[in-house]
Amino acid sequence: MPSKGRVLVAMSGGVDSSVTAYLLKQQGYECVGVTMRLTCSATFDDMGERSCCSLSDLEDAEAVAQRLGIPYRVVDMRDIFERDVVAKFVSTYEAGRTPNPCIDCNRYLKFGALLDYARSLDCSHIATGHYARVRRAPTDAGAPGPWTLSRAADAGKDQSYVLYSLTQERLAHVLLPLGDLIKDADVRRIAAEQGFASANKPDSQGICFVPDNDFASFIEAREGRLLPEGDIVSTSGEVLGRHRGALRYTIGQRKGLGVAAAHPLYVCGVDVESNTVTLGGVDNLMADELDAGDWIWSAPAETIERRIVDAGAHGLPVAAKIRYHQPDQPARVRLVDAEAGAQAGVHIDFDIPQRGIAPGQAVVIYDGEVVLGGGTVL
């Protein structure tokens, strides 16, 4: 079978990337398996099984590559990961906002630095085990149309939300062969049939570089100091208690507040300058609009912006998500002109008030199944 092209397959040692490599080889691609070295020591095992590139994961990835007869290598990207993911994660929390390191890893590592590395290996594409679909429909005239990033067939595993940074230029070089498959019915079955050790490996959970998902302790250890204590206050300014670091609290949080009350209380504000955490009722969490910056269009930017302008002051109807697994929320999007020194973004009005909109998190907008773009909540 003639080769369909040379592809770098990002291999983590998990079931998804293993099956990705298998499917692409079956389809006639020349595959090169690559694992990114991100946080580990020289032994690749300084964080044990919690690491994103633990020794056992590397062994599993290499075993799959050997079974498939494809070359395999490990590439050191610790400096980029530290600068663009870990340091940003810490600084975002220190600014009183809620980061999303998985989105930054996809943007700067998997489909940034690793895509550049793929080109250095003469690979035309990079492939990952993400659950989403990349398509290119023809235009009415029959010519190739724009690329689209769409939701996966497996709604429960859909990862299009964390892939919004895939621009038209990047989509042209991305393969996501799992997008049309169901994980439990298809992917795990294929892995078992091929004898991959990862067939029954559980899905990764939490933040790969933060042991036990305890980000506050991670930041304390990294900074070499304890987080400063401060006041927990009500929306009227009444002191309700003390906290052991404002960074331990997230907008919308209800549990672990350390305050007794006759009615449910939620975190509705984190002020790092005054080092206070504000608690209020559920009504204090509701908002029907947001501004987002650092905006990236996955769909063709000029086309979408023209549609928004044509929609007028009411805004272009879209579906929006402010959390990974949130159901679609009907909304309208308008463009926001850049002020001096600031980047242009968007304004989103929700048809139904939303609970716990957290600055620093991602908001992603859709047109049906297709991702239009996304950005960071301001």
TrEMBL record:
Pfam families: tRNA_Me_trans, tRNA_Me_trans_C, tRNA_Me_trans_M. ATP binds at A10, M11, S12, G13, G14, V15, D16, S17, M36, G129. Gene3D superfamilies: Adenine nucleotide alpha hydrolases-like domains, HUPs, Translation factors. GO terms for molecular function: tRNA-uridine 2-sulfurtransferase activity. It is an enzyme of class 2 (transferase). The active site is at C105, C208. SUPFAM superfamilies: Adenine nucleotide alpha hydrolases-like. It is found in: Cytoplasm. Belongs to the MnmA/TRMU family. PANTHER family: MITOCHONDRIAL TRNA-SPECIFIC 2-THIOURIDYLASE 1 (PTHR11933:SF5), TRNA 5-METHYLAMINOMETHYL-2-THIOURIDYLATE -METHYLTRANSFERASE (PTHR11933). Its main location: cytoplasm. Residues 294-377 form the tRNA-specific 2-thiouridylase MnmA-like C-terminal domain. CDD domains: MnmA_TRMU-like. The record marks H130, Q361 as: Interaction with tRNA. Residues 157-159, 323-324 are annotated as: Interaction with tRNA. It comes from the Bacteria. This is tRNA-specific 2-thiouridylase MnmA. Keywords: ATP-binding, Cytoplasm, Disulfide bond, Nucleotide-binding, RNA-binding, Transferase, tRNA processing, tRNA-binding. It catalyses: S-sulfanyl-L-cysteinyl-[protein] + uridine(34) in tRNA + AH2 + ATP = 2-thiouridine(34) in tRNA + L-cysteinyl-[protein] + A + AMP + diphosphate + H(+). Catalyzes the 2-thiolation of uridine at the wobble position (U34) of tRNA, leading to the formation of s(2)U34. Residues 229-280 form the tRNA-specific 2-thiouridylase MnmA-like central domain. Its EC number is 2.8.1.13. HAMAP family: tRNA_thiouridyl_MnmA.
